[in-house]
Structure formats: structure tokens, C-alpha cells
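Ticket #350: bound-state structure for zinc ion.
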Amino acid sequence: MITVLTPDTASHHPPHEFTDGRLVPLYESPLRATLIEAALRHANLGPILMPDQWDDQHIRAVHPPEYLEYLAHAYRRWVAAGGSPEAVLPGTFAVRGMSRRSLTPLAAPGYYSFDLSAPIVAGTYAAARAAADAALTAARHVQAGASAAYALCRPPGHHAGPDLCGGYCFLNNAAIAAEYLRRHCAGRCVAILDIDFHHGNGTQQIFEARDDVLFVSLHADPAEHYPYFSGYADEIGRDVGRGWTHNLVLPAGTDDASYLAALDAALALIGARMPAALIVSLGVDTAADDPVAAMGASFALSAAAFHPIGARIATLGLPTVFVQEGGYAVDALGRNVAAVLTGFASVVQP
Ligand SMILES: [Zn+2]
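RESOLUTION: The complex was predicted; output attached.
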């Protein structure tokens, strides 16, 4: 299987985030990519490539130009206006009841963010852009005939909406890859399977009114877990997209057997639509020992669950792009990602 990765993602290294009222070191650290890369090299999955550089038009297919302009310049403007040079983190958000859109340097972060887990530093946009390039490069290899490719995206993407960052995410890499593949599949739909522990609220927001991108997400109950305000089973898409969003909500303590049964149900939903290609938002924070998932009550997936997860996804027989999302248990992170990809490759020789 082709792996696409880039050292440029290391330029995103904020010192901290706010989580449940505590200022803590950022869980979504550059070390994550280092550990995943080491595990993939050890697993000897196939060629490891650098991404090509892609034109902004492919990013603008998902995110409006003004949001990209904000991300590119937010840090410099924030610091020049007196914001902390440690990181851009808003103190005031543009929530219901407010009357104006203000984009002054100290206000814009509160307009374009929905939480305090997406701090911006000088190298954030370059890293996010490199991650999107990795996703696009993986998608192009699959579009050109590879049966699967994996993009080691960091920062991750599935919480990022069209013009909202949050949950460690700035650009929605899976959505960008999906949009690229949809434009190259002669009118057929594409599918996104999100297996991160948390609901992919950004991806849902991007595609919920569309009938050409199927979104199926398997995640912890948002009544108990981030992102709290999105991801419930009754969210099924809207307008022409009604029936094109599926949220399969799983309880705390979900074990290997019940998770795999739910995954089979998700795969059946995807297979029924006969998509031209599949994008997998690959989070491994479903592992029992994940420290971010454990901020509520985590799943109980053992290390043995990840190989069959990959193998079962492969049974769809679809050209597949894996895009890295969450996973923060650093001791197991690389091993679990490699297990999913190895499981996939045990069924389909990429
Ligand atoms: Zn997650």
C-alpha cells in the first residue's frame, strides 16, 4: 500500500490547548506522526512517498477563500495586535445572539473556531496545507488505479467545517479527498466511512445537503462525548442529502465484538450505495487506553480489534483512501494504525 507523508506537518506544534477548563500540552503533537511513520516503516507496507504540491482550487472546493486567507495570516495578525505569541486561542466566540461578523485580528479566531482545541502557531497553515496535499496525493494514486493508499495527515481534519476549525482540525482532509474523487468518477457517488472515536461533525456539515457523497460515521455517544452538539442518530442529512448521512452511535465500553458488528452494519450501508470509491477517516482513539477518549468513558477496543477492522473494510472491494484522523495513546498509536492497514492489505493486495 502506498503511504503519503511529509515532514512539513511538524511545523504545527502549539504548546497547549484548553480541555475541560485545564491548560494542557497539546495531545495532537508532532510525535504522533513520527510514531505512525516508524510503525509503517516497520510493517513494510509498501512505498512511502512525499506529497505533490496541489493548487488551492482543490482546497477551495471544500473551504471558502476567506477562511483559507484567515488561516494563512491569523498568527501574524494576532501577535501584531497584541495576542499571545504562544498561540492563537480566542476568548470570545461568535455564538447565537451575537449581531456582527467581526474579523479584526483578535476577533476573527472567535468567528472561525468552535472550541479551544485548535490553537494556531506560525507554522499551522503550512502543516495543514501539507496534510491536505498528502490526502490529495493519496486520492490521485487511487484514482489512477491503486487499490488503496494511506495519507498520514497531521493536523487531522474531520472536525473542520467549511469555515470552522476545532478539535485539532483546520482543513478537512477527508472531505478534500472525497471532493477530488467525486469529480473524477463520472457522476457516481463516493463514500466516507469515519471510524474515529469522535463524530466527524465537520465532514457531516460539509456534505449533509448533498446526494453525491455518502457519510457514515461510527462514534461515541455525543450526549457524553465531544463534539456534544452533533452526531446523533437522527441526523440523517437534509434536503437532497436526506438519507446520505448515517450516525451509528456506540455506548461507552463498546468491546471488539460489538464494534465489529457495528462496523459491518456501516459497511452494508456503504455497499448498498455502490460508490465509486471510499475514503476512510481513520482514527484509532477507539483504543481502550486512549487518553483523549478517556475524558469521558472510552470504548474497550483491544489491540486485536484493529487488524479485522481493516480486513472488513477491504471486503467492500472499493478503491480506498485512508486519511489519518485521531489517536493519542502514543504507545499504541503506530501499531494500531499499521494493524488496520495490514488488515486491509491481507484481503486486498494494494
Ligand atoms: Zn477523535
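RESOLUTION NOTES: The two ends are 5 Å apart (CA to CA).
TICKET STATUS: resolved
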